[in-house]
Every structure is written in C-alpha cells, then in structure tokens.
Protein: Transcriptional regulator
Organism: Candidatus Raymondbacteria bacterium RIFOXYD12_FULL_49_13
Amino acid sequence: MDDLEKYIEKRKKRSKTFAHSFELGYRDFKIGAILKLAREDSGLTQDDVARKLHTKKTAISRIENHAEDIKLSTLERFTHAIGKELKLQVV
C-alpha cells in the first residue's frame, strides 16, 4: 500500500462522511473511465461519438469525466453509439 492509499484509509476511518463521499466519487470516476476505455476500444474519438449522438464533443467529455448522476438512457445511447451493449448488475 502506497502513501496515498494509507492516507485515504486513515481519513476513511476518521470520518464516515469522507468515506461515503470518497466511495461515491470513486464510483462515478470508474463509470466515466469504463466509458472512455470502451469508446477507445471501439476506435472512436469523442468527436465521432458526439456526431452519432447529435451533440458536442464537450458533452461526451463531460460524460467521461463527470459521470455523476448520469441517466440510464444516456448510458444506453452512449454504449450503442460505440457499438457496445450496456449490462447492469445488482450485487
């Protein structure tokens, strides 16, 4: 475990609010990162996806970098635009 991970773990132990906020932020980050990797795997640029969705590149960037409160319909449209299928799992 590196210094950053140790620091985060200490903060989580000291503050339930921090722990909760950190986990939510990390989850949102992962969603955006997964979408970006899937887009890149499809060989598409943000401009390509924006054209397919009839929107601007900045909207695609926002989806990939700030995925908090993203609508399910937006996720479905994004994944279809990159030739992928969206699958959700409840665990």
About this structure: Residues 32 and 65 are 6 Å apart (CA to CA). The longest helix spans residues 16-41. The mean pLDDT is 91.
